[in-house]
UniProtKB/TrEMBL annotation:
Higher taxonomy: Eukaryota, Metazoa, Ecdysozoa, Arthropoda, Hexapoda
Organism: Brenthis ino (lesser marbled fritillary)
One Gene Ontology biological process: ubiquitin-dependent protein catabolic process
Protein name, UniProt field: RING-type domain-containing protein
Alphabetical keyword list: Membrane, Metal-binding, Transferase, Transmembrane, Transmembrane helix, Ubl conjugation pathway, Zinc, Zinc-finger
GO molecular function annotation: ubiquitin protein ligase activity; zinc ion binding
Amino acid sequence: MGMISRVRGRIRSDSFSKFQTIKSEDKIANIVWLISLVFLLPYWAPRGLLVALGGAWLMAAYTCLVLPLLISVNYRYPARWYPAVVKLARKVARRLHSPIAYLLGILKTAYTPVDRAERLFLQMNNLSTMISQLLIFTACDRLLVYRGRLTCLYSLMFYNVITYSVSYVREICTKEDWSPYVNVTRHSRVKHLAMSATKIVLEWTKAVTFIVTMTFILLTLGLEQGLEHFRPTILYTAITGTYYLLSEKTFLELWPIALSALKLELLEGMEALYCGVWARGITTAIAIPLVPALAWNERWRLAVLIFYICVIVHGRHRLGEALVKLNEAQKSLARFRRATSEELSTLEDVCAVCLGTMKSARVTPCAHFFHADCLRRCLATSDSLGGVVASMYGCTPGGPGFESQVGPSLVIESFCIVSLSNNPELGSWRCFTPVPRRARKAVGPAPLLSLVVSSSRPTGV
């Protein structure tokens, strides 16, 4: 009996100690939760208590030290009511799913005219770009420049002058017709007197404007004579200059050219698509932090305008369209594997579309090599691509009687079209006039002229 009573006592003491442990853990979890609220109170103080005491650096240091500590402690001692709250929240969200979906449908229908107006605003490319630039420059003027109320206007004017100079130099470098005369018609040699005089005056006006503009810019920079209210800082110039270079149409056309000069094989000739995504992404990223900074300084109207025009409208439409185009291009090329360096070294051939050398290529299911961008452009215009090698005489390349019927100079240069259907095993193919290998560069790209055969065969033919 004594042993039984001792065993019962031990069981009771163990259960009581476990109960006490659970109760103490609940107390610790509740204490941790309450202390976390206390540590978060400085963020809710009016006008920012930490900023008022020690500036933004004190608030940043407090955030870096306190937030990780609170997260780790709450993870170590979670309150017992956390799972119940999460379960209740999921239940409420499940019940509110259909009403919220119905409400979102109504809001989407009501937002349709606004969306149409936004797209119409973006179609006026020069106006929408200038308004977004002016808003960003004004925000940087209010935040980064001390008593420089006209700095944004002077900066925008200065950047526009540089843009005009760059566009004029580009026009001179890419100009092909240097004749000062204008003919009556395109194929006539008779000079149009009035139009020729107008063209000469216009060209001289452009040249004089460019020379005067560059002279004044050099004098301003050389003599260091600043304007009355023009006091830009280094940070202001860096932000506004970056935004302008990535949003102005003239420079957006130059960035892909500069990037293609680097010949990065990773981009596969799609520099224009990547530059569009990068430029829109960086400009949107520049505009986002300006919104809370303006709201902190009680510039509510400017903050709302930048958030709507520069973040929502430009980010949702222009950045969204650039991302959609890039994703479509990557999806269309995902079906074709990349050619290895060994395959390209043994190929010793050129792209059948652009007749350029191939340092990187994509391989079609019929073992043909194309530049990724050339292949993407072909697939963008139609669901077909240059693929199967065949003979207009109906014999298989490399088979018996092929060279005797076609001749050694016409071996393996007939172009066919493989339509990519939903069934990967089948596809329609059409053969075209063969072109000699030695005469391919003289003929030019894509000599798909005369239709010879049309039938349905597997793509592996």
